[in-house]
Amino acid sequence: MSRVFVSKRARPPVPRNADLERLRRRFLELRQGLEQIEYFSKGTVLKRMMKCGKAQCACASDATKRHGPYFELTYKVNGRTVHIKLSSEATPLYRAAVQQYRKLKTLLDHLEKLSRTILQHHAKLAESKRRD
């Protein structure tokens, strides 16, 4: 009686050209999204209510009477937090730029995952052609 050994690592089937074409089209669609990205900035826009430092001011004892709101952009550079004070006119511009940065990061993450999948499919196709 002969024994048959089955590998625990079965080779995945070679992807069909239709699958590869679908992935390629999706990659191109996502890449077009990069053209729609406008000015961007990493960081966060914060709204601050501040104490003035005067002992007799109401803000010293009552948090609801603090001065503000004041807005600032914060982000990290070499492990240190940078704070940039924003004018009321600049605040919406930086909020939009921060939103664009997040959109860009999400888009790049999707592109990378899709690209990795396509590369794996190409590698499998190359291996199957080499075996033939």
Please tell me the total number of domains. 1
Shape from CA axes? rod-shaped
Helix content range of the residues, please? 40-55%
Chain-averaged pLDDT? 88
If you had to describe this structure to a student in words, what would you say it looks like?
With 132 residues, this protein is of the alpha+beta class. The protein has one domain (17-131). 44% of the residues lie in helices and 19% in strands. The protein contains two helices and three strands, in the order αβββα. Strands 1-2-3 form a three-stranded antiparallel sheet. A hairpin with a 2-residue loop joins β2 (67-77) and β3 (80-86).
Write out key terms for the chains shown.
44% helix, rod-shaped, 2 helices, three-stranded antiparallel sheet, 132 residues, alpha+beta
Question: What's the structural blueprint in terms of helices and strands?
Answer:
Layout (H helix, E strand, L loop, with lengths): L16 H17 L10 E7 L16 E11 L2 E7 L4 H41 L1
Antiparallel strand pairs: 1-2, 2-3
Helix pairs in contact: 1-2
Concise description?
This protein has 132 residues and is of the alpha+beta class. It is 44% helix and 19% strand.
